[in-house]
UniProtKB/TrEMBL annotation:
Alphabetized UniProt keyword annotations: Exonuclease, Hydrolase, Nuclease, Nucleus
Residue ranges occupied by any Exonuclease domain in the UniProt entry: 315-478
Lineage: Eukaryota, Fungi, Dikarya, Ascomycota, Pezizomycotina
Gene3D superfamilies given in the database record: Ribonuclease H-like superfamily/Ribonuclease H
Protein name, as recorded: Exonuclease domain-containing protein
Record bears the keyword Glycoprotein: no
Coiled-coil segments on the chain, per record: none
């Protein structure tokens, strides 16, 4: 009887396997041995099937896959709010904070959760693998004083510098840098929704330099990820970083078509993808492009390259131009210089613009009216000469070369640019000046006009670029990159974004770099900013559009054509209406004192009318902002990191004093100027005031929570 039951059981198993097109397991085979079968597409898989227990999930008709003797677990579902697996961010009152949290710490928190950043020391993060999305919104104009229980928006005024310093504190007491719990009942009504979204208000220190009176860009700080240590750096006997020279061909430093377009270079047709767009390309009127039919035309066969050659068989020409003004912001070519790899001057000519010059800017260009009066060479003459000189194997190098090519109205696809080769420490869009690079890396003083009539020398500048590139080729890619402290934040997420088992399955156990998608929702044109590197860029003209853009980026487009279905992993956004209302940035900056006075009068009149109606613009703006953030928060899926940051404190007094200092230096450095005749004075008193104003400007606020 027992044998009959076994035979019947075997026939049942055989029947079940037959319905799944799988072969029978041989009785003689060990039970743990994996078996191989073909799926419906004919692909071969390795594993075995095991009947699940009575309490296991009954998907797949009660069967589960076994690999290496263990069942393969399915992706875990999104945990519920009360689950022990739900991600969280905790702050303990026993934490040993020693100072305000830097703005960069909030950036690094996103990198820790989503990529390869270090673990934060100011808060603890639990269940990191369970985070699904992150949304960071910068709202310049937010101040800690707005969240005080007794704030009166009808009398909300800019404090004096001493009052502001007292509010900010000197940073010596924990009261100055510990986060403040948000009590909804104690907040002004317009800001009470913040207590529903965030547990604390964090005092945040914006990037800058108190000693030298500088405030660095919070936008650049947030969108620039710190670089990982270079493999080409070793330690010397004292434990310090030392560079190992790696001779490198100049072709390794050529900018890609994507980099050229991102940095605003004129478009050459070979920079476009093959197809209708390239075939239908036409130069704008007055523009020309070099005779290059495809990027491969620049390649030189190895058999033609001399052994050890840095130029790799290419002709290298350094280019620099001098320009003058024919209108308020219209630059025209007045001098062009080309220098060969050997340092010989190939071309150096003055050019007569076709429009009258309104400003020779001699202190920068070195060009005077007397120099240009006898000149008959035109822009088209120069273009014709350059088209003869520049062939497919020619590499043009220079500093911020996009500006030179724009005044030349010429496009060329093979570019080495020293402003890209030696990036600014705080990342794009900032650039190092050629003068700084020459001082630092060549120990050379250039552009010594100092605002005088001597100006710049385009041949000298071209040779300086040439020497910088030569030294870079001799030293290698890692040389002189210590000045650059980061890479684009969106690119870092795309390159090193990490998935975990909870969201990507067993293959991601321990973390798997698969890349993260991102969206930038910003005011204005995003094509020339760091936001251009995001997976999706959504330009906006109002905070209402920003709100809609963030929700769209989080949820995704129904067709998934622009924003991926299900939304992106990381969203960056900036709301600016509060910033404009506060006067922290001028949406339409007045160009004359009369216009500034008129703008001030209009603002005062508007505020007066508002007060008559019992509605105060600042309070109304904060109420609208809170509602926008609350709607965004409601639209976020579970397990989403949510941040709101002011970026900085009030920068107005700092900006006023910095403008004063710039005017003083300009007048002081003018030849023949006398101290007692300067319109602006700059003494130790003003210097001390500037340092205080910078401290105020660096006092921001931040909020962080998990939805």
């Amino acid at each position: 009887m027992g044998k009959k039951k076994n035979n019947m059981a075997n026939r049942g198993v055989a029947s079940a396997l037959a319905t799944t097109n799988l072969p029978l397991i041989n009785d003689a085979e060990p039970a743990a041995t994996p078996m191989t079968w073909s799926d419906s597409e004919g692909k071969s898989s390795s594993g075995s099937l095991k009947r699940s227990g009575p309490h296991d999930a009954n998907d797949d008709d009660g069967w589960q896959t076994i690999e290496r003797g263990r069942p393969v677990k399915k992706h875990k579902k999104i945990p519920t709010a009360n689950s022990a697996r739900y991600p969280a961010i905790h702050f303990s009152e026993k934490s040993r904070l020693q100072s305000k949290v830097n703005l960069s710490a909030f950036r690094d928190l996103v990198l820790y959760i989503f990529a390869d950043g270090p673990a934060p020391q100011w808060i603890s993060v639990s269940q990191r693998p369970e985070f699904r999305k992150a949304v960071v919104i910068m709202v310049p104009g937010l101040e800690e004083a707005m969240f005080k229980a007794d704030v009166d928006f009808s009398k909300y005024e800019t404090p004096t510098l001493d009052q502001a310093i007292k509010q900010v504190g000197d940073g010596t007491s924990p009261d100055h840098y510990y986060p403040r719990p948000l009590n909804k009942a104690a907040l002004p009504q317009s800001l009470q929704p913040f207590a529903d979204m965030f547990p604390h208000l964090w005092p945040v220190k914006a990037p800058g330099d108190d000693k030298y009176g500088r405030l660095h860009s919070p936008l650049t700080t947030m969108l620039t990820a710190p670089l990982n240590k270079s493999k080409d750096k070793t330690k010397d006997k004292f434990g310090a970083d030392s560079h190992r020279d790696v001779r490198t061909r100049i072709t390794e430093f050529l900018a890609t078509p994507e980099e050229l377009m991102e940095n605003g270079f004129p478009t050459h047709p070979v920079m476009l993808p093959e197809g209708e767009r390239r075939d239908s390309f036409r130069d704008p009127e007055g523009w020309v492009h070099t005779r290059v039919n495809k990027l491969e035309d620049g390649d030189v066969p190895e058999s033609e390259i001399q052994q050890g050659s840095i130029t790799a068989g290419r002709e290298v020409l350094a280019l620099d131009c001098e320009m003058c003004l024919t209108g308020p912001s219209e630059l025209v070519l007045t001098r062009v210089s080309l220098v060969s790899w050997g340092g010989e001057t190939v071309l150096d000519e003055l050019v007569k613009p076709d429009k009258p010059i309104t400003d020779y800017v001699t202190q920068y260009s070195g060009i005077t009216k007397e120099m240009l009066d006898p000149v008959t060479t035109t822009l088209s003459d120069i273009q014709a000469k350059l088209l003869d000189l520049l062939h497919p194997r020619t590499i043009l190098l220079g500093h911020s070369l996009e500006s030179d090519l724009k005044v030349l109205q010429l496009a060329h696809p093979f570019i080495v640019d020293t402003s890209m080769l030696f990036p600014h420490a705080r990342g794009p869009p900032l650039k190092n000046s050629l003068k700084y690079l020459a001082q630092r890396h060549l120990n050379r003083e250039v552009q010594k006009g100092g605002g005088t009539i001597n100006g710049h020398d385009s041949v000298e500048d071209a040779k300086t670029c040439l020497d910088l590139v030569k030294k870079k080729c001799e030293k290698g890619k890692a040389w002189a990159t210590g000045d650059s402290q980061g890479e684009n934040f969106f690119r870092r997420l795309a390159r090193a974004g990490t998935a975990y088992r909870a969201t990507a399955g067993p293959q991601a156990t321990g973390g798997l770099p698969v890349g993260k998608t991102s969206a930038a929702v910003e005011w204005g044109d995003l094509s020339r900013s760091a936001c251009n590197a995001a997976t999706v860029a959504i330009p906006c003209k109002s905070d209402a559009e920003v709100e809609a853009g963030v929700i769209r980026a989080v949820k995704g487009d129904p067709d998934g054509l622009e924003v991926p279905g299900g939304g992106v992993d990381f969203v960056w956004a900036r709301m600016r209406e509060l910033e404009f209302l506060q006067g922290w940035a001028n949406k339409h900056k007045p160009t004359t004192p009369a216009a500034a006075a008129e703008q001030t009068l209009e603002a005062e009149q508007a505020n007066g009318d508002a007060e008559k109606d019992g509605v105060f613009p600042l309070e109304e703006c904060l109420f609208t902002l809170s509602q926008r953030l609350q709607r965004i928060h409601a639209a976020l899926p579970p397990c989403t990191l949510f941040m709101v940051l002011s970026g900085t404190g009030d920068p107005r007094e700092m900006s006023r004093l910095q403008s004063m200092h710039s005017q003083f230096k300009k007048e002081y450095n003018t030849l023949g100027s006398k101290w007692d005749q300067l319109s602006v004075k700059w003494t130790s008193e003003e210097e001390d005031a500037l340092r205080k104003a910078v401290k105020v400007a660096r006092a921001g606020v931040g909020f962080v929570s998990v939805k």
